Amino acid sequence: MTELSKARRAAVTALFAAGLALAPAPAAQADTPRDDAPEPVPAVDLARARGAVQDPAVLDKVGHFFARKGVPPTRQLTIGAAEEARAASDSAPRLAGDTVAVYTLDAGFVAGTPGAPVAKAAYTASKVVAADGQTASVWTARQGDAWRVVNIASGGDESDYAAKAANSGGGTAFREPQVNAWYVLRDGRVLPLDEEATRSVGAGGVSLAAYQQLVHQRYGDKLPGSAYDRAGEGGGYRVDAASRREAAGSGSELSAVTAAAALGATALVGAGAVLRRRRSGR
Length: 282
Hints:
Oligomer: single chain
Number of strands: 9
Radius of gyration: 19 Å
Order of helices and strands: HHHHEEHEEEHEEEHEHHHH
């Protein structure tokens, strides 16, 4: 991996982790967190989110994403515009599977706020498949009374892990973005869904209370107002200005990932955002 790639990955991970800064940071409590799942996204909202993805203009954007193999539109390809347009049309993007809510680790849970859920819905995701087998995850967020596309990412982790959770006994799949770990909350336990999660909590998982202690140990001193927060090191990475500029110049990754981290608070990007997720281990 090049140094620039490492910087981009660090910047992206740090900004995803900025979602922890969206809630106040009370002192950790001794109370055991409630054993209940995050509040679900109503079916009517999932249907509206899916409808936004089915818009022909959005599917055209996804087609160009497939034609460009995920390369951001700010970077030139070796093919011309006409060839790209033909490839986008030939990709024939189609939705596959259900539109799912994507839950991420909640700041209140990390802080130890009594009754805080382990995770909250951050956005929805719909898997789209191309004729050649490429897959992409189209993210949507509620903006006022409408659901709008905020990102297109390679792969289909969001839908895949939701399905894996459902097929392995049910529960709510959620992500701890700081370590790229996917878990399922089931019967009061946090169980791993991927290798990163297995390294985090073991193959047998941990109780919800034990997981709260674990994430509080990891991030409790990184919540708003901490020295860590004031130093601008959210997410465990020091990202200098040069790295931020380089990453932003590679395809506006930073602005869109900020939106993904802060969905539900501020919507920053529209249907034109075409990005590539950088993933490790899969």
